[in-house]
Specification:
240 residues; alpha/beta; Rossmann fold; DNA polymerase, domain 1; six-stranded parallel sheet
Length: 240
């Protein structure tokens, strides 16, 4: 049975795992949803966003995330039969650096950084990630973004890029634990690439998959935690 001390490096999804992107999305779409007579549940908003974001990422994989999100905002408006101007769409796309971190992210990362090399594999652009990095507070050993790769997870190119990146850092595949919330974007392709994985199941007390598409069958997980602090505490308890 694998234990957390078996690994020397962690690769992280950021948005949904370390940054509370669902709050950022729900709040960012309020200029649309507040115009509806009957409103929308948060889950309905997130599922609408997931459909439109996944479609946009598949159709324009080389587009930077802020511009892609502006398109997602417009498509959500069209789905809701609401009129918007492009400036409003762009404001949403520019909001990513302001999305909040989960309360446990910074402290947990600071602890894990003492024991692992820390790598990012994120579906955003470099400028947006810089906003997250200020909130997360650690020095990363490697940062690989969708802007670097030219595609979005779960595309195989993103995991090829990760594997090539860790090889350059002298990290073997068996030494890496991929750590993420999204089954669709991360765990299904990570397992297909032979990576062990830690599911940070932020949505454990909610129904559905929120801002990610339904992956179909769930991927196997090497570890499962409901928060990042649970993972850090499990590592600390194993040490003691």
């Amino acid at each position: 049975m694998a234990v957390l001390r078996d690994y020397t490096a962690l690769s992280f999804d950021v948005y949904g795992t370390l940054i509370d992107w669902e709050s950022g999305m729900v709040n960012g779409l309020r200029p649309l949803t507040d115009r509806l007579d009957n409103g929308m549940s948060d889950n309905a908003v997130l599922e609408m966003h997931a459909r439109n974001e996944s479609g946009a990422q598949a159709q324009t994989p080389g587009r930077r995330y802020p511009e892609l999100l502006a398109t997602v905002y417009r498509r959500c408006a069209e789905e809701l039969r609401l009129e918007v101007d492009w400036e409003e769409c762009e404001r949403y796309g520019a909001s990513v650096p302001d999305w909040p971190a989960f309360p446990d992210s910074a402290d947990s990362l600071a602890y894990l950084k003492q024991h692992y090399r820390m790598i990012v594999l994120s579906n955003v652009d470099n400028r947006s990630f810089a906003g997250a990095a200020k909130k997360l507070g650690i020095a990363w050993d490697g940062v690989f973004t969708a802007e670097d790769v030219g595609s979005y997870k779960p595309d195989q190119r993103n995991f090829d890029y990760l594997l090539a990146g860790i090889a350059q850092l002298g990290i073997e595949r068996a030494q890496l634990l991929h750590t993420a919330e999204s089954m669709f974007h991360d765990h299904v392709p990570a397992r297909a690439n032979g990576l062990d994985n830690a599911w940070i199941y932020r949505r454990h007390d909610k129904q559905g998959f929120g801002a990610t598409m339904d992956p179909g069958d769930l991927a196997d997980t090497t570890f499962r935690f409901n928060s990042l602090i649970e993972m850090a505490e499990a590592h600390e308890n194993a040490r003691s």
